[in-house]
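Example record

The entry below shows one chain as it appears in the dataset: sequence first, then structure tokens.
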Amino acid sequence: MPARERRAIDEARSPEREEWLLTLLRDLVDEAGPGKAAAQLGVDRKTLWRCLRSGRLTPRLAGALEGRLPAAERTASAQLRERVAVLERHLEAQAEELRAGVDSLRTGVEALDRAQAEALAQWERRLARVEANRTAGGGTPPASPSPAQGAAPQVVGRRPAAERPWRYHPDLVTRAPEPDEELVYGEATPVIVRWRAAQVALRDSTRKFDRFDAEQRVLELEIVIIGEHGLTLPPVTYGWDEADRKHEVWKRKEALKALHAARERALKRRRLRRILTLGLWWN
């Protein structure tokens, strides 16, 4: 090929094409070694190394690489199609697993909502029954007994008012519901019901971020139970004083801060894994 024609071809080659040919050259050297690569391209090793160091191809070397380019492009295209197909299969499998996980989570949340609604409805029925017992009447209140009269006669038509159950430590919260506990806990009863449901959700959580959410809910409810209602949580068997309650609230607030930090770290690790695996890692 005349020198003038070679210069024209070299000047017409775009920088992108030049870079692609250099990439092809580096791949060939990595696969075959510098000696075999130089022999296949019809140049000496000195020319090969000079082009690799300078990033500029001689016309002869560029022409030899151009001759190998169609096969290399076909190979790269086939590899790309295969990789895309693998990614599509992985994404489809992960999407199916994600849909199954979402359905399972939705079922669990619905079951938890039903259990909480049932517990709240039961508490409301109990409270309504207690109020009815307090307001129900008819006749006069019983007279105080005297030594001469003995015990006071029973008043006909009046139901006895509900009494608060006796507890040795009435400020201790139990893990399981107890009869007429709304008379003991008062306004704190709905919060305690939600706390028990949150404990169940935490125990049944299997996924990391579900556990983060459930643990956060438990800690927030415990802060309300201890700080606003002055109650004591199990497994303690004695009532906390004011200093104990302040300390317990502080511990739970610190636990919330640590939980938020751990959740942020887990989110960053999950994003990094998704980037490094091109979206193949979901959990």
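Notes for this example: Residues 99 and 233 are 38 Å apart (CA to CA). DSSP finds nine helices and no strands in the chain.
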